[in-house]
Amino acid sequence: MTEKRIAVALDVRDIKEAERILEDISGYDLIVKIGYALFIKYGREITDLVKSMGFDIFLDLKLHDIPNTVYNGVSSAVDLGVNYLTVHTLGGRQMLQKAVEAREGSDLKILGVTVLTSHSEDYMDYIGSHYTIDQLALKLAKEAVDTGVDGIVSSAHEVERLKKEIKKDFISVVPGIRFSEDSTDDQKRSATPETALRSGADILVIGRPIIKAQNRKEALNKFYEVLNRC
Ligand SMILES: O=c1ccn([C@@H]2O[C@H](COP(=O)(O)O)[C@@H](O)[C@H]2O)c(=O)[nH]1
After folding, report:
1. From 97's CA, which of 65, 130, 139, 180 has a CA 20 to 30 Å away?
2. How far is it, in rounded angstroms, from Cα 24 to Cα 216?
């Protein structure tokens, strides 16, 4: 069984601000998620900073490109020494195969993003699919896990079905975590930490509820209280 963990999304654009957040959350056994806002600007400087503070690194670049380009991108992430890297499962089987091939022999875990948690059912109409989000997430997750991807990013609402129907072990990574399911921001398929964990989530990805909190330690402690209880 995978140990349940929290990944804090370091979604800021300035390295000094990132440093202040990292100081506030230091001392916890956390994964820190670095997105492209910081990575495009600071590259190795930001990954080295996060690593020097003892955190595991989740590089959230959501690669989606032709197989050869993704192969090269994943190889660079291996060189960087990060722990997790996201790719879009919509990139197709060959792209996923190349991503998996590129990290072979390293400790890098590839996480496949299914349907972003900011999408609701009208997105399925937008992409011209007759599937529901649930069906598409399952199809993409199955393909990705079959290809050798280590983890699947989905909303909490799909996790139970994915864990039940995918026979191979995988890490379930769930963003869109909110204490209230009535949140009014850009997350459309959000869930409480209790719901996500009880559905089988292994890693909860949490950004604004921690980094924008008045007291970040207090906010983090509230999430840990749930993590230890569920
Ligand atoms: O489907 C997805 C995939 C990735 N994310 C990322 O997670 C965090 C969530 O931040 P919050 O502030 O807690 O909403 C953010 O970095 C996203 O890029 C996601 O939300 N949904």
Report:
1. 130
2. 6
The two three-digit tokens of residue 136, written as one number:
């598409």
| Close Cβ partners of 76 (under 8 Å, ≥ 6 residues apart) | none
Name residues whose C-beta falls within 8 Å of residue 106's C-beta, 6 or more positions apart in sequence: 78
For the full predicted model, state whether its pTM sits above 0.90.
yes
Q: Is 208 in the pocket of ligand 1 (CB under 6 A)?
A: yes
Q: Is the CB of 91 under 6 A from ligand 1?
A: no
CA 150, CA 104: separation in Å to the nearest integer? 12
Q: Among this protein's residues, is 56 annotated catalytic? A: no
Euclidean distance between CA atoms 220 and 192, whole angstroms: 14
Q: Which residues contact 27 (CB under 8 A, 6 or more apart)?
A: none
- For the chain, domains (ranges, CATH) are 6-229 (3.20.20.70)
Q: Separation of 114 CA from ligand 1 center, angstroms?
A: 13
